[in-house]
Amino acid sequence: MGGIRSREAENLRQAWGRVTRWLERNAPKSAGALCGPATPKMIVDAEARLGVSFPQEMWTWLLTNNGVRMADDEGGGRFAAPYSSFLPSGWHLLSVAQIVNVCESRADLAAREPSPHPDRETLAWRHDWVPFAVETDWLYGRFIDTSTGMLGKWSDGDLTRFETHASLAEYFHSLADDMRQRATAQDGRLVWGTRTRRPAEPSR
Question: What is the pTM of this model?
Answer without folding.
Answer: 0.88
